[in-house]
Write a structure and sequence with these properties.
mainly beta, 4-stranded antiparallel sheet, about 30% strand, elongated
Length: about 180
């Protein structure tokens, strides 16, 4: 879908920064344009200022303006993926019957994103530790986490009653 409110700029001095005073902001539908450009813009590059909370997935190198007389240049598109968060709670299953109202959060448990697909905590996997109430989260994840799984390191003396297969990360733009 189109993304409004994003700054698009023409880089006049070639430094890749929005510091030349030639910019516009995308409409609600993501559309943008610069009109009535003359020959001095030929060879210059159009970029976007990537909004906070997003990563750029199309147009990272910018788009060079051809600047051919009387010929408009279209489809200079940019795309962004909105970062997402995942979270949950680690419980002590008091009665062994899954998560029910009698269960309490369990702190100090390692939760990890299995980056290598081993289902075990490995070097390079991302980790967090549950808070005292059992809550945990990973924030600002990008599209590369889609399809990965989240697991726990089972504490000594416990048997896992929920989540034995881990949880797959869907990785949808902006959907926590």
């Amino acid at each position: 879908t189109g993304l409004g409110g994003v700054v698009i700029f023409i880089d006049l001095d070639g430094n890749g920064l929005n510091d030349d005073g030639v910019s516009t902001v995308t409409e609600a539908d993501g559309g943008w344009s610069f009109t009535n450009l003359d020959y001095s813009y030929a060879g210059k590059t159009v970029y976007e200022v990537v909004p906070d909370g997003y990563v750029q997935t199309l147009g990272e190198a910018g788009h060079v303006i051809t600047g051919t007389s009387g010929t408009d240049q279209e489809n200079l598109d940019f795309a962004n993926f909105e970062l997402f968060d995942i979270s949950g709670t680690k419980y002590t299953d008091v009665t062994g019957n899954g998560i029910t109202a009698d269960d309490t959060g369990l702190g100090a448990v390692t939760i990890f994103i299995d980056l290598d697909g081993s289902t075990d905590l490995s070097a390079g996997d991302e980790t967090t530790v549950t808070a005292a109430d059992g809550s945990w989260s990973f924030t600002n994840l990008d599209f590369s986490y889609a399809g990965k799984s989240v697991y726990e390191v089972l504490p000594n003396g416990y048997v896992q009653s929920v989540g034995q297969a881990g949880y797959a990360i869907t990785g949808t733009s902006g959907a926590d």
